[in-house]
């Protein structure tokens, strides 16, 4: 198991300074590094540690926090942490439940990936800073898209989207342990790059823009290709996206059970959309 504390706990982003890892005894650091190495590195915060996997690994070892809270890791990760902690006299805890069904092959919750419904995206950019691995690209007032290969399915971009145009789709895949560990290390590195970039942006007093992706900044610089849209157009686009979203929900409900009022509401919304 990769748990080299010299590399794993060195050169961390300043976000982790409060963990004071360097002051801990080396055997404690070793356990933290080993636990961090087995965590999925989606940085989703479902373990109640919004800063991600490393703070959770630290809390398990230093504060005795329950080791079964990593939702995407499921039972396999809980069992691995049980082994690392060397709790031989007890059965492993049961992993925290996920909203996604357990994949029979990996025995972990089914993985998902985020997809933007590009027709509905209003280019507000709110999803970009939410993504811990910089998997979303796009620029203001333009449609955004997600690099599916980079997306971890952490779901952090869903809540900020004002028009509810990001869907989660399940994926199936089978990874060898070594490939999974490698992938987790890459994700961890991407997260650290993201944190270091945000830190630099915050420290840059000449930067008056909100924190956004570097990719977006580059795209913004391609000024010759930007499309200027009027305030009214922007409002119409938002209204249309909201209407489409409501229409989709009603159509879904009506496909299950017919309802006269809902059918009338649907016709009214379709009329409103046609007028925009
Ligand atoms: S992947 Fe697991 S440990 Fe990492 S932030 Fe999410 S729930 Fe916490
Ligand atoms: S695109 Fe969304 S779901 Fe995918 S990694 Fe980024 S924030 Fe998470
Ligand atoms: S938050 Fe939603 S609407 Fe805004 S850019 Fe992202 S996907 Fe598009």
Structure overview:
A two-stranded antiparallel ribbon has the order 1-4. Strands 2-3 form a two-stranded antiparallel ribbon. It is globular, with a radius of gyration of 22 Å. The protein is mainly alpha-helical and 276 residues long. The protein has helices spanning 5-8, 26-38, 53-63, 74-85, 177-203, 214-221, 231-256, 260-275, and strands spanning 111-116, 136-137, 145-146, 166-171. Among the domains are: 3-84, no CATH class; 231-275. The longest helix has 27 residues, at 177-203. 42% of the residues lie in helices and 6% in strands. It is built from 8 helices and 4 strands, in the order ααααββββαααα. The structure holds iron/sulfur cluster (3 copies).
Keywords:
276 residues, mainly alpha, two-stranded antiparallel sheet, binds iron/sulfur cluster
Helix and strand arrangement:
Elements: H1 5-8, H2 26-38, H3 53-63, H4 74-85, E1 111-116, E2 136-137, E3 145-146, E4 166-171, H5 177-203, H6 214-221, H7 231-256, H8 260-275
Antiparallel strand pairs: 1-4, 2-3
Bound molecules: iron/sulfur cluster (3 copies).
Average pLDDT rating: 85
Count the strands? 4
Cα shape: globular
Strand content: 5-15%
- Residue ranges: pLDDT <50 for 5 or more in a row? 210-229
**Order of strands across the widest beta sheet?**
1-4
Radius of gyration: 22 Å
Structural class: mainly alpha
The distinct bound ligands, ions and cofactors come out as: iron/sulfur cluster
Number of helices: 8
Largest sheet: 2 strands, antiparallel
- Kindly state the percentage of residues in helix: 40-55%
- Gap between N and C termini: 58 Å
**H/E series:** HHHHEEEEHHHH
């Amino acid at each position: 198991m990769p748990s080299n504390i010299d590399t794993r706990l060195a050169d961390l982003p300043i976000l982790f300074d409060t963990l004071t890892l360097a002051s801990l005894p080396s055997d404690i650091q070793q356990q933290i590094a080993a636990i961090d190495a087995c965590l999925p590195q989606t940085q989703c915060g479902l373990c109640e540690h919004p800063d991600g996997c490393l703070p959770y690994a630290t809390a398990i070892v230093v504060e005795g926090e329950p080791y079964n809270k990593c939702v995407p890791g499921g039972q396999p990760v809980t069992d691995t942490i049980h082994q690392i902690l060397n709790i031989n006299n007890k059965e492993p805890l049961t992993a925290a439940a996920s909203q996604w069904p357990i994949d029979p092959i990996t025995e972990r919750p089914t993985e998902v990936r985020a997809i933007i419904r590009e027709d509905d995206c209003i280019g507000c950019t709110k999803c970009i800073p939410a993504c811990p691995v910089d998997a979303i690209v796009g620029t203001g007032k333009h449609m955004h898209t997600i690099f599916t290969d980079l997306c971890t399915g952490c779901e952090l971009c869903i809540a900020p989207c004002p028009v509810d145009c990001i869907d989660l789709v399940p994926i199936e895949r089978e990874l060898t342990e070594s490939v999974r560990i490698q992938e987790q290390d890459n994700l961890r590195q991407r997260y650290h790059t993201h944190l270091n970039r945000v830190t630099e942006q915050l420290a840059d007093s000449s930067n008056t823009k909100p924190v956004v992706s570097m990719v977006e900044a580059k795209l913004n610089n391609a000024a010759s290709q930007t499309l200027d849209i009027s305030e009214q157009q922007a409002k119409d686009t938002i209204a249309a996206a909201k209407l489409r979203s409501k229409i989709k929900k009603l159509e879904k409900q009506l496909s299950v059970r017919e309802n006269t009022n809902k059918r009338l509401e649907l016709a009214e919304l379709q009329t409103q959309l046609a007028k925009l």
